[in-house]
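User: Hey, quick favor. My workstation is busy. Could you predict this chain's structure for me?
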Amino acid sequence: MTANATAPEISIEENEAIRNANSFLEIFYERVKLHPNKVYLRQPYGSQWREYTWKDISQMAQKLVSALREMELVPGDHVGILSKNCHEWIVADLAILMGGYVSVPFYPTLPANELREVIELSHIKALFVGKLETWETQRSGVPSGIRTISMPYYHGNSKVKCEFSWETLMDSCEPAEQLHIPKPDEVFTLIYTSGTTGTPKGVMLDYQASNLIMKYEREKPVYGIYQNVGERIISYLPLNHIAERVLSEAMPIVSGGTVSFSESLDHFGKNLQSVQPTLFFAVPRIWTKFQQAILTKMSQRKLDLLLKTPVISSLIKKKIKTGMGLNECRCAVSGAAPMSAALIRWFAKLDIDIQEVYGATELCGGVTFNALDDIAPGTVGRPLPGVELKLAPTDEVLIKAPWVMRGYYEAESKTAEVLEGGYYHTGDTGKYDDSGRLIITGRIKDTFKTAKGKFVLPVPIENSLARNFLIEQVMVTGMGLAQPFALICLSESASNQTRDDIAASLGESLTELNKELDNHERLSHFVIFREPWQEDSGFYTPTLKLKRHIIDQHYKPHYETWTESKVRIVWDNA
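Assistant: No problem, here it is.
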């Protein structure tokens, strides 16, 4: 990591403003006063970047506040956002908060039936509709009676027509002067979790919970996040996910950072190289894709050789990091799903020290973190200040912190289930390492029982398999079978190897892995898929976590056949 990549230090005046503010919204007001003409948001249009200052964004948001008031919305009303990441997303969100409303962001890829469900559950009065690829099919999911506002059109996306248009409102509305000053116990957002079963749950977060953002800032000497004014961030993961919202919206406001957006998935690499962010957040699936992109250009053997050569090592590291867009990154963060220790160690050899964070929507982001000088691969670090963490007799991770959610919207019984005894029951299982760092061992609901009546935790086994870089995706399964087994998608780096070479390598991994496992955990075989599961296959949540039950449903008809073949390496033809 380029730890020396710094930006201008926070001034005394700015520190004073941060100390005196009671919410990130009030800090936004202060930012507009402190440096109205500094660049805050950057939007790509092809090879060009359009830049917006703090004053620009505030003026646009204030016009939308006037528009929402003219629509007869009253403080406390719920207002939705349905869009991919863009600067208008931030403007709309700020406008909702500045008007005293509750922001309800939705995943931009929701199909019509699921969109209708969360809209009806959330009781929104208005909806901002923006950068979308499938609005033509999604629009039927918006019930009549909801005021809709279309954001500007982006090339390659749907042409959205709504009751009101962004451009018209910007031309016709005057900026509102009376802006909302929130109280700590006010709910500022309602976020529907990306769960895969049952009725979606709306997590209510108040401004007191958002003070976590300022706590991160105050603890910067310890945790190394946003230690300077002028941090550069690229926003590309769904902004309605709590981690992206914290890192790409709230924390840049607190620190005075600059946020650039990715134009599209196809342009992500180019945009990332252009921005060269100083702070970068990615889920494990993205880090794996980075690794595989490197290994397709250079074999692991050649890379190891170059990194062992002192004169060449620093040059090759810089070339790789610059090509990735991370040469100036001083804080690389992973979260949303467990990341294998092997992958973290692999990037560390390139001087990219990935800091894993652990949290949940219900916790307004993170509760444990690997500090830069205390990274322990395989753990999610130590609790943040103010966090009380303990393990239940079942090994479930329990959390008590000032920023725990208020509860689930209109779901008192579900709230009572997860906030029992004053602790948030995460549903994750864990243990401590010898130094007291937390290790997440899996999800309670992901644990399955074999035909022998023994329980298997899949995540630790999957993380062990990640040591073989021919494996890109893996899911351990086998409920009701005599022994568990693994479904494996090959990585890009396997494309230039023969089937026999791949089978030999994976067979060796299977043998070595089973030596580490108890009898009931040992895998009987691998099922190999030449092509990875695509993001649009239905096998992933919007944050790229595997939908295990969906994958099981899809392949279950083949499980017995694969098991009865008695072959250790099965090549799928399904």
